[in-house]
Specification:
By secondary structure, this protein is α+β, with helices and mostly antiparallel strands. Helices cover 12% and strands 21% of the residues.
Length: 188
């Protein structure tokens, strides 16, 4: 997970990308590795609390190389699953200046900037900005990590830089010449 920090009181109003942006979003691919690795299933008692997409019965918004599952009651991600191709990783190319609402997910289930203004909370990316940035859709994948659906609030002083160091260590020490899959789970 990685944070995006904006100056106090200057959190940008999230924009919304066109639906066409998501047309080729492959999401988490359980067949990405030689042996199939399914994303963790949501416990039965939490399924009713999972957000479904506006136009389908799916609970899994798919982005470029990763997927998210959202909680209705918390308006935050429960789970993230990402595919990483270490042979095709590309460097992050920009500093974030904006966040995005996902038009496929009802806005009432997306915690916007109001939670971060005048607080010690920072946007933390459940799927880190570096993780899905590979292949010919690296730029789109990086933009996808900036979706509100992929952000969870973290207390800035506690998690920066301690948590950031841990997540960097895991990615830096993974066998970056191979394919990897990671799952992230929030705790409420």
């Amino acid at each position: 997970m990685e944070s995006t920090t904006f100056p106090v009181g200057r959190v940008p109003k999230p924009k919304e990308l066109e639906l066409s942006h998501y047309a080729n979003s492959d999401g988490y691919d359980s067949s990405f590795l030689e042996d199939r690795v399914d994303r963790p299933k949501m416990p039965h008692n939490l399924l009713e609390d999972c957000v479904t997409l506006k136009d389908t019965s799916s609970i899994e918004p798919r982005y470029h190389h990763f997927s998210i599952i959202m909680s209705k009651s918390r308006r935050l991600a429960y789970l993230g699953a990402v595919n990483i191709d270490g042979n095709k990783l590309q460097p992050i190319k920009f500093e974030p200046t904006e966040q995005y609402f996902d038009p496929r997910v009802d806005r009432k289930y997306q915690v916007g900037p109001e939670a971060y203004i005048d607080s010690n909370l920072v946007f933390y990316h459940l799927i880190g900005r570096r993780d899905p940035v590979w292949g010919n859709v690296a730029r789109e994948a990086e933009m996808d990590t900036l979706h509100i659906t992929n952000c969870i609030p973290h207390y800035g002083d506690l998690n920066d830089p301690i948590w950031q160091s841990l997540t960097d260590y895991v990615l830096d020490n993974a066998d970056l010449g191979s394919k990897n899959q990671y799952f992230y789970r929030t705790t409420f």
